[in-house]
Amino acid sequence: MTRVLKGAPHFQASQSSLIFWTRGGRRSAMTTMVAIRGLTKRFGHLLAVDNISLEVPRGAVLGFLGPNGSGKSTTMKMVTGFLTPTSGTAEVCGVDVLEDPIQAQRHIGYLPEGAPAYGDMTPEAYLGFIADIRRLSGVARRSAISRAVELTQLDRVLYQPIDTLSKGFKRRVGLAQALLHDPDVLILDEPTDGLDPNQKFEVRTLIQEMSGEKVIIISTHILEEVEAVCSRAVIISDGRIVADGTPDQLENRSRYYNAVSLSVASDNVDKVRRALSELAGVTAVEDRVGRGSGAELVAVPADGGDILADVSRLVREGGWEVDQIRLERGHLDEVFRTITTGKAPPAAGDDHA
Amino acid sequence: MHDTWIICRREFSGYFATPLAYIFIVIFLASVGAFAFFFGNFFVQGQANLDSFFLFHPWLYLFLIPAIAMRLWAEERKSGSIELLLTLPITTLSAVVGKFLAAWSVIGVSLILTAPIWITINYLGSPDNGAILAGYLGSFFMAGGYLAIGAFVSALTRNQVIAFIIAAALCFVFTASGLGVVLEFFSGWAPRALLDIVAGFSFLEHFKDIARGVIDFRDVVFFSSMIVFFLFANVVAVEYKKSG
């Protein structure tokens, strides 16, 4: 969660390699493609989703974040028409999902949680079935299937029953199914859950490649994923939106935003700590459980102020031996925990999972 | 129509992708044969007709059809693929009808495969083939009635075993509603009119004449309305779960 330099190239919604997605070059900036209006779902006494409203413009990659059971999946199920909302509605590409679910569903590609599929079919037959349902035929059908297979790299397992495939391939079959008809809106419920790091990387790359002309909504509880692919993050807790902004904006809410960490030799620690805490603009100096020899100190700024210059001047003047001096970005996981549990942030050095 | 056909095709190949369809067909043929020859005294009767063959169809359907109907919705709900199916741009009705037609086709295939019995009887004597055709059609429609009940029950649960047991019980009630075992239950307290209505729902009653080769328009209407009613209930059950 630490970066060497402030403003290091963080994720920028990938604008390159979009050739195959931009059909006819429809590029209207900031059109709302998905509008969620007061969506509420009640299961008996349980209020699963509580009056959620959102507008997502074309080109956005929206990350739905939240603890398990916070209502992410339920929201997605209502937008895709699998569940009927208790109240409120959603519009997809201007079509109300309650008034005309079929028309709305034509615009949507959906990967349900756990990527269910018809296990007795092969990916080839399965994608053929989806293509038929999506009313693709002839050349369009063939090219749609081969493009989806290529994007998700399914060619090796095309003729094996889906039941016999590994988790990673199953997930990819689900993704291929979702993006088969080149939908305007892609809704992916935990697209990387249970995948190994390489597969996660591939799926994220795929999501980045597809962003731009579409709306992509993913749900996840993996925070690095949000940083990696999302242009906007919405945190849901107990069925309500508790935070909404770019990943950067959310990080700004962290107390570690703009904090400076120093790796110093152990014999210098006390001296450095004292000097840092006397610095104006520093509210606290925390020890981080260091890796290897030496210690790591974190100077937490007051109100996210810029203290890097002051700290480095201090280091120069003091002539301390410092292995490393880093400017911290906020800790998204700490923001997440603070927001969703209302608890005080844990001590520094607590490695995010 | 298009969607119904696509769903039906997928569902039908689903039956044959697993051993289910084969097992169903083999068991069906074996028991139809056993019942007709052993209990029905097919040969002893010395008559060139298939009465004794059709006679046992309701009792076979009673537990065989719930067995192939139980997976229709319960399996989808269990595996989660129902979420996929219901978020595809198709109506619930086309999914319901498509699935029903697929399972009905499996039953149709099984019935066609009983042709050797028909060939045998033509070889041994000269039966009324019109009556036999009527018997087959009647049996097929009756199977549709059982199947619609089974499909509806399957939509109510994610557990296939529960779907089977409830469907079989429900099918039994409809099979035997003209018999004492069901009517006794009502006779103590229910008015005569209700008793007649209950008896009127008996598959056995409606199939009795068909099995003898007499197709009565009312019997066909009865089985068709059973199919339509339970498919409608199936749609309602699927839609209801959406709001669940």
Runs of chain A in which pLDDT lies below 50 for 5 or more consecutive residues are 1-29, 344-353
Structural class of chain A, by secondary structure, is alpha/beta
Major β-sheet profile of chain A: 6 strands, mixed
Strand content of chain B: under 5%
Contiguous low-pLDDT stretches of chain B (5 residues minimum) are none
> What can be said about the biggest beta sheet of chain B?
none
- Over the alpha carbons, how many angstroms does the gyration radius of chain A reach? 23 Å
Described by the principal axes of the CA atoms, the overall outline of chain A is elongated
| First-to-last CA distance of chain A | 11 Å
Give the CATH topology of the largest domain in chain A. Answer: Rossmann fold
Strand-and-helix sequence of chain B, N→C?
HHHHHHHHHHHHHHH
The radius of gyration over CA of chain B amounts to 19 Å
Helix content, binned percent of chain A: 25-40%
Beta-strand proportion of chain A: 25-35%
CATH architecture heading of the largest domain in chain A: 3-Layer(aba) Sandwich
Can you count the helices of chain B?
Answer: 15
Strand order of the largest sheet of chain A: 7-8-9-4-10-11
